[in-house]
Amino acid sequence: MIIDLVSSMEYELLFGAIGSLSAAIVYLYKLQVKQNKRIVNKLDQCEAKHEKANEELLKLTYKVGKLTGTKEMYERVENKIEAINNG
Asked: In this predicted model, what pLDDT tens digit does every residue of 1-36 receive, in sequence order?
């Protein structure tokens, strides 16, 4: 009788421990899934901002190139005018 009582208590403890571990695993899994979704959302936002920044960089690069070309053209014209005036 006493042995049956001890066995019964051990099984209750074992099942309680298994239940607690199972609950902890489920909680950690759900936490991981939630964190993964948050990271994916942040990554999507970052990629969108990165694309926008790249587009702006291309526009600025084009403008700088155009201004550089215009400046060089004015310098050449200025040099030719000086050459004509001096020559």
From this structure: 555 655 777 778 888 889 999 999 999 999 999 999
Give the CA diameter of the chain.
Answer: 126
Half-sphere exposure of 52 (CA within 13 A, CB side): 6
Q: What is the pLDDT of residues 60-77, one digit of tens each?
A: 999 999 999 898 998 899
- CA dist 76 to 35, 45, 66, 69, 82, Å? 61, 47, 15, 11, 10
d(CA 2, CA 80): 115
